[in-house]
Specification:
- It is a single chain.
- The chain is α/β, with parallel strands linked by helices and 253 residues long.
- The protein folds into 2 domains: 1-117, no CATH class; 125-252, Rossmann fold, CATH 3.40.50.
- The chain has 9 helices and 8 strands.
- The strands form 2 sheets. Strands 1-2-4-3 form a 4-stranded mixed beta sheet, with helices on one face. It has a 4-stranded parallel beta sheet with strand order 5-6-7-8, with helices on both faces.
- The radius of gyration is 26 Å and the shape is elongated.
- The two termini are 25 Å apart.
Length: 253
């Protein structure tokens, strides 16, 4: 939730930032402490000077542009200050307040619109295969479910059943070959029943958001380590790819 204080305060003019701009993982970054800036963003002098203070204490500090260039502008500080400061006269209020409110709505509204969590946080899907399947399922557990939005796994290894399935709290799709030597069809069918039960217990998170598909005759590794000369294996691998894409299209769109 944002309030006037999010856009209040003063821009520093008593010092100049001493760091440099660079690019890290494709994101413009001012520079291990990562500062997630206020609504005035990575270029706001106050935020850069704060980073300099941490850097002077011996840390490497990054201030990424998480807002993709859509941070609030520093002029908002003075505008909001005009709104919050009591006018000396009624006439002064009539003259100064309405324009200030208008521009505050324009500036703050734009920053909030583009940086609201639902708009600025991309939905994240995780796909895990074989060894990665265990970690993918673990990411759906209640302790870590805030990290992702949906998961897909094919022929997962090292699952601890029933515990790994009992703790699922985020949408999960499982693809398994009927000839998998690490998980039996009966185990996966039992997991499917558990997921359906969890859908009733946690309808908002899981109802209608779990899926189990068994590929007849397929063995362990059928989605990623196939014999490309075997037509059936190629077809099943492509079918599994389509299952994953359709799953993420449904849950992440």
């Amino acid at each position: 939730m944002a309030c006037p204080d999010c856009f209040s305060g003063f821009e520093r003019t008593d010092a100049k930032p001493a760091g440099t701009e660079t690019t890290v993982f494709g994101v413009p970054t001012y520079g291990i402490i990562v500062i997630i800036a206020d609504l005035f963003g990575w270029q706001f002098v106050n935020n850069r000077l704060l980073a300099d203070t941490y850097a002077a204490a011996g840390y490497r500090v990054y201030v990424p542009d998480f807002m993709a260039g859509r941070a609030a502008k520093p002029w908002l500080l003075e505008t909001v200050q005009t709104i919050l400061t009591p006018a000396k006269t009624w006439g002064g209020a009539v003259v100064s307040k309405p324009p200030a409110v208008f521009w505050a709505l324009v500036g703050a509204g734009s920053a909030l619109w583009f940086n609201w969590p639902s708009a600025s946080f991309p939905r994240i899907g995780v796909a895990g295969f074989c060894w990665g399947g265990k970690h993918t399922v673990t990411l759906t557990h209640k302790e870590t479910s805030h990290l992702i939005d949906a998961a897909f796994t094919a022929h997962p290894s090292f699952l601890s059943l029933p515990g790994d399935i009992d703790n699922v709290r985020k949408p999960l799709a499982i693809a398994l070959g009927s000839n998998d030597n690490l998980l039996s069809v009966s185990q996966v069918q039992e997991a499917e029943k558990t997921l359906l039960k969890l859908g009733s217990q946690f309808p908002e998170q899981l109802k209608g958001k779990t899926e189990v598909k068994i590929y007849d005759g397929a063995g362990h590794g059928f989605s990623s380590r196939i014999d490309r000369l075997n037509e059936k294996q190629v077809d099943q691998a492509k079918e599994c790819e389509a299952q994953a894409v359709n799953w993420f299209d449904r849950l992440l769109a």
